[in-house]
Specification:
single chain; 337 residues; mainly alpha; 62% helix; DNA binding; UBF1; nucleus
């Protein structure tokens, strides 16, 4: 409950003019009447007849408020941009610092540590793996991707025509081949001539395709391919099907020169004196004649052999761009017993 003095003070405040009176009035007094050491606020409201502010004052206040908001917003955006730029700089600096530390750590590594890393990464290959790697490299060099050839005989042409686009089970293949052979025997002469003409055309097309494939590679590549094929057959027995090494026929590669003994052998066979005699007997007789040959005649064959050798060396340097390998004597003419 308020005292009479407090009530009179409230009445005086409420009865003041509405122009000067604030919207909310707070009156405090000692809290002896209510709560100890506290303060009680009494709120009052202005009368209904409070005059409105003028239009000029309202416009000014709105303008100031707008300008104040805009300035605040611009300041806020500047602050955010500065903060974001600062963050980006901090991130970039941290990233560069990390990179530099990594580079320093790599460079500062001792040579022993580097050697250990290399040893761990590059372990020595086993002999089996070395052979597998060598075989794989030789296969790449050997150029086994030769063009597929067409059938070039009447029999193979007839088989190709009878089995084209026809599936035959493995257990019925033998019987099917017997039927085809019987049909081939009973062909007419006109049909056989047609098959022969087709085979000749296939031969020509096969030769053209093979020549084009060979010429698509350099002579150095074909020479390396033939060496790789020899090594694959001798060391790995690859491929296993043909017994003889199938070499690439390249007409651009110079042929080896003829030896003096080979020239003499050709001359003796061309004379016709050994016609009708067995090859082994004739070869032995020619070898004995070479050993008994006078020096004058032998020098003539030697000169022909040297001329062929010099011509071969020139061709090798022009085509393969290297010097030829030195001549190796693999066999000698039979000695006189």
């Amino acid at each position: 409950m308020l005292s009479s003095v407090g009530r009179a003070a409230i009445r005086r405040l409420v009865s003041t003019s509405s122009i000067t009176a604030p919207r909310r009035i707070a009156v405090s007094w000692p809290a002896a009447y209510t709560v100890r050491y506290g303060r009680v606020f009494v709120q009052g409201f202005a009368s209904a007849g409070r005059p409105k502010a003028s239009s000029t004052t309202t416009k000014a206040t709105t303008k100031t408020s707008k300008t104040g908001k805009s300035t605040k917003s611009t300041k806020a955006t500047k602050g955010t941009t500065k903060a974001s730029a600062g963050k980006g700089r901090k991130k970039s600096t941290t990233a560069t610092a990390k990179k530099t530390t990594k580079a320093k750590s790599r460079t500062s590594a001792s040579p022993k540590a580097k050697g250990r890393r290399i040893q761990r990464k590059r372990q020595p290959l086993t002999p089996e793996k070395k052979l597998a790697v060598q075989k794989r490299e030789l296969k790449k060099t050997a150029m086994f991707e030769e063009p597929k050839m067409l059938p070039d005989t009447p029999w193979t042409v007839y088989i190709f025509e009878q089995t084209k686009d026809k599936k035959v089970l493995p257990e019925n293949l033998r019987n099917r081949m017997k039927e085809i052979s019987e049909m081939f025997k009973n062909l007419s002469s006109s049909e056989r001539q047609r098959l022969a003409n087709t085979a000749e055309q296939n031969k020509l097309s096969n030769a053209a395709a093979y020549t084009a494939w060979v010429e698509s590679h350099t002579p150095e590549q074909t020479v390396a391919a033939n060496k790789a094929r020899h090594l694959l057959k001798r060391k790995f027995q690859y491929p296993a099907s043909p017994h003889v090494v199938k070499l690439i026929r390249d007409h651009r590669i110079p042929k080896r020169p003829v030896t003096p003994f080979s020239l003499f052998t050709r001359a003796r066979w061309a004379s016709g004196e050994f016609a009708g005699r067995p090859f082994g007997e004739a070869a032995k007789a020619i070898g004995k004649e070479w050993l008994k040959l006078p020096d004058v005649e032998r020098h003539a064959y030697d000169d022909l052999g040297k001329a062929a050798r010099t011509e071969y060396e020139k061709e090798v340097e022009a085509v393969l761009h290297r010097k030829p390998t030195p001549r190796r004597i693999t066999s000698k003419p039979p000695s006189e017993e």
